[in-house]
Amino acid sequence: MISDKVRPHHLERKAILYVRQSSAHQVLHNRESSALQYAMRDRLTALGWSEIEVIDDDLGRSAAGGVQRAGFERMVAEVCLGKVGAVCAREVSRFARNSRDWQQLIEMCRVVDTVLVDQETIYAPRHGNDRLLLGLKGSLNEYELDLLRQRSLSARYEKARRGELVVAAPVGFVKAGDRYEKDPDRRVQEAIKLVFDKVEELGSARQALCWLHEYNLDLPVKQTNRDTAWRRPSYSAIHRIIDNPVYGGAYAYGKTAVAAGYSAEGVSVKIRRKARNQWLALKPNTHEGYVSWERFEAIRTMVSSNVPTGRHHGAPKHGDALLAGLIRCKRCGRKLTLRYSGMKHHIPRYSCSRAWMDNGGPHCIAFGGLRVDDAIEEALLGVVGPGAIAAATAAAKEAGERRDQVRDALSRDLEAARYAADRAFRQYDAADPANRLVAGELEARWNKALAHAAEVEGKIATHDAARPMPAADPATLASLATDLKTVWTAPTTDARLKKRIVRTLIHEVVADIDDAASEIILIVHWVGGAHSELRLPKRRRGQRNSTSADIIQAVRQLVLIAGDDLIAGLLNRNGLKTGNGNRWTRERVTSMRSNYHIPVFKPAEDGIEPWLNLSNAAQILKIAPKTLRLAAEAGEIESIHPLSDGPWIFARAALTMSAAQSITERARLNPKYPAGSHPDQQSLFSSIT
Fold it and tell me: What are φ and ψ of residue 84, in 5° steps?
């Protein structure tokens, strides 16, 4: 029976049969549902339509609104053009299960006078009652979908809270029912353990990646078919291992959230990571992990603190500055930025310029880093010194273990390569030689496996050829450890190792400048709660390589009796160097005098020098030079002695005082140490020259 809602102008236009199923699983297995939907073509024929178009482009696509449906959009476009008299589906829920698509379809059908047909009845959107009924059915369909999804997710989440929902196993694990088990492949197990060991040892995921690349070691990865393959390590692969709680023996679920985005290209789905306190489930010690849960958390915290933002210090880098990422401004609370200057870009300078870079604010403080790092080194070596011998012995032991790790990893790779070559040979040997198409391919696979095994053998040979230096005996290590400063300042000592030691002992350093006293104030917060304050004089630019104050004072005194040539010789004889570590020359002495405004030595015009050396002063007093020197050392006469291996300087005025006269009288009265002949005494021997 033809409904009175179907008019001749409806039959003049074509009818569209819309066929859809929500998932690929339904398409493959729910064949009866597909047959019932296609059978609606007979209903349209019975209603009087001769031109019927079937749209089944959306098979396997949900109508909830999260994915784009090309078939539905084409159907709506045909309706808008007025070419469609009826749209048909087995159930109206096949059209849409979201209000946006459903209301769009009803409105377009109302405008162009198109009827909707399902297995029960015919709806005319231009009729108020039918439009109300269609709106209610659309809302019920949407609610039904939400209810089904809510029930399904509730059951899924409850199973996850019990730690029994295992969807997929990461690399290194296999799914055994509702729990994880370690991969039985020992090569995979040792590779994952090696990742944790190297990250913990080197302090960052990036350094562990560089170490693996240095020795050409591969890591296992899970392919889309859930098989394990070996690939060159990547930064993301290492982070996936050290960030996944499964490797620490914990069950975790709900670590990510799906957010739908809308753009000109359509609906896009983005996955974002959630904070740990927002995870649905986190249950430690639910299965056997590759590391303990405590060690996993310690490694994860260490790697997270390598990000140089907020309260984190950042990973130790190659620069020489010890306090990079550790030092904070006392005035504004921001971390000091670091830059290097100098001809070789090796001189650090700390400055609080974050306010200027971010908001255009003023600079707080700035100072050179060399003197600050020297003070921190001195304080640090005093703390580390007592454990230096134990640390040196442990370092030698760890060096041997690191080499064993590489050798063991390469041995496992060789064993796997030989197994693959042997398996390829067995496949080739079992093939029919007459079938060259199969035999040729198997032969090529065998040759490729043999080449890979030879490549691994070459790596092992190269590794074994690089023999390490002989390990130092315990006595040598003990003597070297007692002089920890020599080891610390050696050019071969890695700057990153120094920084890791600093960060192990120092939590933070707060810096300020006392402008009145021209001093740098450092408050060192040691790990454990202790605090100490250091005050350092703020130097001028280039002052670190300037001449020592003791040398400058010695030159001020030496110019009283000596010229630049003699002063240079005296400084070199005492083993003194310039600020740059060079020997003294006349030109360097002249330059230093000019820089510090020290006058040059000039002989007196009348020949009466106001300052005398030891020999000339003894000659004036008519005593032996040794007698005068002993008196000067005893403090009996005023004198100047700038250098330990240098001249004595006496003022001519001091030689006329009572102290000098008493020394002269005592020397003449001492029969054991005669002071010399009396000027009025005559000689018994006449001169023969």
Answer: -115, 130
